[in-house]
Structure formats: structure tokens, C-alpha cells
């Protein structure tokens, strides 16, 4: 599956932003989907994941209650709604797909990755 992330930009602290990920090729509805991020000088980290059906979602503690992951299997898209953004949310955000049966938060379990979209939050 090919993934294309979009929606990044420069925002101020407290603002909201929505990232989108469009999937093509193998239909993404067969995959668990996730968002990860990588800040300068840091390792890529888990942000959120959603099951194939969309019934189950998981979040990193740092974004819980501020970010919402969702998917539209009919349109083959996954979104990440981000609110109350903080400067520490600044990173390149990647969407990823996992064919594993169980939903995972581990980078190694996601075999397909988008190119990333930069989110910069100014204080």
C-alpha cells in the first residue's frame, strides 16, 4: 500500500490542525493504521493507531485527550485531528500501515510508511 500524508503546517500553540493520509494500492481497510512522529534529533515515536474496522483506537499518553485518529475505509483515508497543540508537538508526522493481526504501537510492526508531513507549533 502506498501512503501519502498531508495537512502539516505552521501553527501557534493552542491551535488545531488535521492531518490526512491517503492510501492507494492494496486497500488500507485490510491494515491497522497508525501515526508516528519524529522530532529533530529524536527517534520516531508512536502517536496513535486505529484498528481495521475503526472500532479500536490507541494513543500515546502525550497526546491523549488532544488528538483523535479516525479512518474512512470507503475513501481509503486516515486522519489525525490535533487540538491544543504544544511546541513539543513539533515534528514530522508519518502515517503507516500494519498487516499484523493485532494492533501495535511499535514502529517495527508497520511495514508501509508515507513520506511525512511537517508540523511546526510556535510558542
Account of the protein in words:
With 123 residues, the chain is mostly beta strands. The protein contains no helices and eleven strands. Strands 2, 4, 5, 6, 9, 10 and 11 form a seven-stranded mixed β-sheet that branches. The chain has a four-stranded antiparallel β-sheet with strand order 1-3-8-7, with no helix packed on it. A hairpin with a 4-residue loop joins strand 7 and strand 8. The termini are far apart. The mean pLDDT is 94.
Helix fraction by DSSP (H/I, runs of at least 4) = under 10%
Structural class by SSE content: mainly beta
pLDDT averaged over residues: 94
Q: Radius of gyration in whole Å, from Cα?
A: 13 Å
Could you tell me the number of beta strands? 11
- Segments where pLDDT lies below 50 for 5+ residues? none
Strand and helix order: EEEEEEEEEEE
Sketch the major β-sheet: 7 strands, mixed
Q: What is the approximate shape? A: globular
| Number of H/I helices | 0
Distance between the termini: 37 Å
β content, as a range? Answer: over 45%
Give a quick set of tags describing it.
123 residues, 7-stranded mixed sheet, mainly beta, globular
